[in-house]
């Protein structure tokens, strides 16, 4: 058995060496793809899975919010005033966040030079809270006290893509209104 074990070990090492030699074919595109994948994996690991906001056990109602490239869809779109849990379900391929602002509509929100919402320029009391960016294929909850009025829900992420283009989630349509009665 020991002779056979050594033979299997030698065979395993030989297969590994052949695999490594065949894998390094000098193709820069292949190497770049592996590097890009590694960078994306490392970026994903740096982001928290989900930072829950508030206490969902105190909620009087719940709204499911679909997030994807590039939509925000609350269901239902109208809810009674009180403590509301927003269950943000990121079905997209990118990380998203959910910002909650009391405002008549998206057009009334102050904009930064890049087209995103200038959260620092919001009127006092308009910013209700946010679910910080969280990865795709994840659901994250935020529980907020919402009085009667209109609320704008949006993703305010602005990022540079690998090709150098700037992707602005808000201007690409990641915004919706939630009516609170």
Quick take:
The protein has 181 residues and is an alpha+beta fold. It has two helices and eleven strands, in the order ααβββββββββββ.
Describe this structure in words.
- The protein has 181 residues and is an alpha+beta fold.
- The protein contains 2 helices and 11 strands.
- The strands form 3 sheets. Strands 3-11-8-5-6 form a 5-stranded mixed beta sheet, with no helix packed on it.
- A hairpin with a 2-residue loop joins strand 1 and strand 2 (71-75).
- The radius of gyration is 24 Å and the shape is globular.
- The termini are far apart.
- Mean pLDDT is 81; it is low at 1-47.
User: Count the strands?
Assistant: 11
Supply the number of helical segments: 2
Could you say which overall geometry the principal axes of the C-alpha atoms support? globular
Mean pLDDT figure? 81
Oligomer: single chain
Beta-strand content estimate: 35-45%
Tell me the radius of gyration: 24 Å
| Strand adjacency order, main sheet | 3-11-8-5-6
Note the main attributes of this structure.
181 residues; four-stranded mixed β-sheet; 2 helices; 23% helix; disordered N terminus
Q: Mind sketching the topology for me?
A:
Blueprint lengths: L1 H22 L4 H19 L14 E8 L2 E5 L2 E2 L2 E9 L5 E7 L24 E8 L3 E9 L2 E6 L3 E3 L5 E3 L6 E6 L1
Parallel strand pairs: 1-4, 3-11
Antiparallel strand pairs: 1-2, 4-7, 5-6, 5-8, 8-11, 9-10
């Amino acid at each position: 058995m020991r002779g056979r074990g050594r033979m299997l070990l030698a065979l395993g090492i030989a297969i590994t060496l052949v695999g490594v030699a065949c894998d390094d074919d000098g193709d820069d595109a292949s190497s770049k793809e592996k590097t890009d994948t590694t960078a994306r994996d490392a970026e994903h690991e740096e982001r928290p899975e989900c930072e829950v906001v508030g206490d969902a056990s105190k909620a009087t109602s719940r709204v499911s919010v679909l997030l994807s490239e590039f939509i925000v869809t609350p269901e239902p779109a109208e809810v009674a005033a009180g403590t509301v849990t927003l269950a943000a379900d990121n079905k997209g391929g990118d990380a998203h966040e959910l910002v909650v602002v009391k405002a008549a509509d998206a057009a009334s929100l102050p904009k930064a030079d890049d087209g995103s919402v200038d959260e620092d320029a919001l009127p006092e009391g308009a910013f209700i809270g946010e679910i910080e960016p969280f990865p795709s294929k994840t659901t994250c909850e935020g529980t907020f006290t919402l009085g009667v009025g209109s609320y704008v829900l949006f993703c305010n992420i602005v990022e540079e893509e690998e090709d150098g283009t700037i992707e602005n989630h808000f201007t690409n349509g990641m915004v919706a209104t939630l009516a609170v009665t």
